[in-house]
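Morning!

This is the sequence you dropped in the shared folder:
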Amino acid sequence: MIHHHDPAEGPEDVHHDVAGELHELGAVGKAWTVTVVIFCIARAVVVWPTLRKYGVNPWWFLVLDVGTAPTYGLGQAMGVKLLRDDRHPVKDAMPWVAMVIVSFLAPYLYLLFSAGHLPIYVIAGVVLWMVLFGGLSAYRMHQEVNTARVVPPQPPSQPVSTH
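The structure's back. C-alpha cells below.
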C-alpha cells in the first residue's frame, strides 16, 4: 500500500504524536526534568518546619511539589522543543506551556489557601517567590527557544556561474 501524504497534515517529517515528541526530547530535556524533581524534594525538606508552624500539611505540600515537578520539567522541555522547531505551529506547544503554569502554581496556591493564618510577610514572600521564579522560568524558556531554533532544511541553491 502506498502512503500518500496530505499537505494539510503538515510536513511528513514532523511527529504529531506525544510519544514521538517525547522520544526526540533528548538527554538534556530528560536531565532537566530529573533536576526539577530533585530540587523540589530538597525545597520541601528545607521548608518542612515552617509549613507545620503555619498549619500547612507538609506531606500534601511535598506530594504536590514533587508530584508536579515532572510535569513542570517535562512541560518546559517539550514547550521549548516545540517552540524552537519552525516545523510546528505555536499551538502545538500551548498544552505543554499550560502544563508548566499549572505545575508551577499548584504547590504555592495550596500553601496560600491551606494555611491557617499566615503573617503578611510570609504571604508577600510566597507571592514574591512566585513572581520572581515564574518570571525567571518564562525568561529561561524564551531564551532557550530563541538560542537554538530548528529551521527546516532548505534545498541547496544552484551555484551562480561567473562565466
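Headline: The radius of gyration is 21 Å.

More detail when I'm at my desk.
O.
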